Amino acid sequence: DIQMTQSPSSLSASVGDRVTITCRASQGIGAYLAWYQQKPGQLPNLLIYAASTLQSGVPSRFSGSGSGTDFTLTISSLQAEDVATYYCQKHDTAPWTFGQGTKVEVE
Amino acid sequence: DVQVVESGGGLVQPGGSLRLSCVASGFTFNNYAMSWVRQAPGAGLEWVAAITGSGSSTFYAASVKGRFTISRDNSKNTLFLHMNSLRAGDTAFYYCAKPYTSGWYSPFDSWGPGTLVTVSS
Q: How far is A89 from chain B (nearest CA, A)?
């Protein structure tokens, strides 16, 4: 099965900083990569799918890029409300594996 | 509005069994493949199992294959997860997840509130 590895596992940044999270697949998955945001005590929320397509209602400071095995989620200007754990997920074929998560905190 | 609601969780002894249910509304249930995703307290998300809209094909994570069975009753808009030979490592919130589109290659955009399964003696 394809493994999904995120880095870093956690990060702390200041409001207004540019934040980048990386997700690597152990084999190529084309552009079938989604990003979710899970705030404390809440359900996961789909941010991006097909590697770079922003889900409706998601702020434009979030963006995604990549294809094949290497993908990136970028928050262009971190806001206090972005404190959450972010997960990548392959959404091509089963198993729809998630990355282990990246916890984002604000300094 | 799209809604999925899980039930059936609880405390079970190691080696025991449990059946989870998920009732769906607000969309054409039999058009969508459905999945179960779990999250142990304080841990990350783990996809568990999926079933096609017709119910003809099922898929499992390696960690549950042979112990869990996913099924659905399209006449009742209900998804099931039958869990056997439960272990402490299966302790988690179990979520029913609906994909964003009816296509196979779709991530999840709707989640139920979850039902907690605790495996302990």
A: 8
